[in-house]
């Protein structure tokens, strides 16, 4: 017996890009201390009041099947939040609740693409993007954003491969680069989508983590609401990564189709988790800012540390919980640098190559340990890069 081609080719025949991370975890399992700056996991846990409300909802009996598109109360809260943050009128029928943002990414590609369709995405990318597209039966095609452009994708580069494609996936604020797409970038993307009749899937799970500039949802641009599906999540904004509660926002008819898909796949999200998400959203923007504050603070620390040396260059990281560092001066690939750094100093970072070809020679650093350890690790990384650059 054989597994399906679709499932055996999710990785496209290559690496999943997590070799350094896996090596670091093996070291930790063997009792070797490692400073992990790898994954986007807060160094705080979900706030106790949210968990207490989740417990209350479960004890009071909201443990049976919940409505598949989501509870009315949570869909209404998400709709109100999106309306307030983007200015686009959004109602309950424009929202479906999903088991985290990743489930939303998969569902939207199933909804937009037939088997064999071409689905575009921007490189550098979050590591699951191409596999998600393959899992949905489509063919992923990366469009490189260039380091010399600050990883802002060029509309002309997207347009050059857009003929015959069905969808385009973008992510701003961006994981892995920390780049926030400018209005000019997003307007160019919108023109390409309109000219080539593409669905735009906009991953906006970091929309509350913007340290410079502004987050613009492309759904708010003229003519884009009817062709844009937005992915949101409680994971990053409320430190609820393990609760698996996200959403898709889009045209009402597409939400109906997505609800049919969820009925035959995930069958919704537990009601007590949705109730806790309502409670969390009701804490307002001040609570979201509190969750994001450690990353704002560490970004400022990093800018100061990196300004004092010239071996490592910081990509303009204006959002999210990551820094993208250019270490090409060392003559090493991002993968070789990260592997050597782990061996020499027990500091684990993600190679840029884990997120596509465009970020080769770069590192993604997650700002997810306490301030003192973070500053110490970053200084050590810079010293290590300087040593390697002198040898290059």
Automatic annotation (TrEMBL):
Similarity section: Belongs to the class-I pyridoxal-phosphate-dependent aminotransferase family.
Protein name: aspartate transaminase
SUPFAM superfamilies, per database record: PLP-dependent transferases
Catalytic activity: L-aspartate + 2-oxoglutarate = oxaloacetate + L-glutamate
Cofactor(s) demanded: pyridoxal 5'-phosphate
Domain Aminotransferase class I/classII large intervals: 36-380
EC number, as in UniProt: 2.6.1.1
Organism encoding this protein: Sulfitobacter alexandrii
One GO-annotated biological process of the protein: amino acid metabolic process
Annotated keywords: Aminotransferase, Pyridoxal phosphate, Transferase
CDD domains listed in its UniProt record: AAT_like
């Amino acid at each position: 017996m054989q597994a399906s081609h679709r499932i055996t080719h999710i990785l496209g025949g290559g690496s999943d890009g997590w070799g350094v991370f896996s090596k670091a975890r093996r070291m930790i399992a063997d009792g070797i201390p490692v400073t992990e700056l790898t994954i986007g996991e807060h160094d705080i846990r979900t706030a106790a009041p949210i968990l207490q409300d989740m417990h209350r909802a479960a004890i009071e009996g909201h443990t049976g099947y919940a409505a598949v598109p989501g509870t009315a109360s949570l869909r209404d809260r998400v709709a109100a939040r999106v309306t307030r943050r983007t200015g686009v009128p959004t109602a309950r029928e424009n929202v479906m609740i999903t088991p985290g943002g990743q489930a939303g990414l998969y569902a939207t590609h199933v909804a937009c693409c037939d088997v064999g369709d071409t689905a575009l995405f921007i490189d550098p990318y979050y590591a699951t993007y191409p596999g998600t597209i393959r899992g949905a039966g489509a063919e992923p095609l990366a469009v490189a954003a260039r380091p010399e452009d600050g990883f802002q994708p060029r509309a002309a580069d997207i347009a050059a491969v857009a003929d015959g494609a069905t969808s385009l996936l973008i992510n701003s604020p961006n994981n892995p680069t920390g780049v926030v797409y400018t209005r000019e970038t997003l307007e160019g993307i919108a023109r390409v989508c309109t000219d080539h009749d593409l669905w735009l899937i906009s991953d906006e799970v970091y929309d509350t983590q913007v340290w410079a500039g502004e987050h613009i949802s492309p759904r708010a641009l003229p003519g884009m609401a009817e062709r844009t599906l937005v992915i949101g999540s409680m994971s990053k904004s409320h430190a609820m990564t393990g609760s698996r509660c996200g959403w898709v926002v889009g045209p009402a008819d597409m939400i109906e189709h997505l609800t049919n898909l969820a009925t035959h796949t995930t069958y919704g999200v537990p009601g007590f988790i949705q109730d806790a998400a309502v409670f969390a959203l009701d804490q307002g923007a001040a609570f979201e800012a509190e969750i994001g504050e450690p990353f704002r603070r560490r970004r400022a620390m990093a800018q100061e540390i990196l300004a004092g040396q010239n071996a490592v260059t910081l990509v303009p990281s204006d959002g999210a919980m990551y820094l993208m560092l250019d270490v090409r001066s060392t003559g090493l690939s991002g993968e070789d640098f990260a592997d050597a750094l782990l061996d020499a100093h027990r500091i684990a970072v993600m190679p840029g190559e884990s997120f596509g070809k465009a970020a080769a020679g770069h590192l993604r650093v997650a700002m997810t340990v306490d301030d003192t350890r973070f500053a110490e690790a970053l200084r050590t990384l810079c010293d290590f890069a300087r040593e390697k650059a002198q040898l290059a």
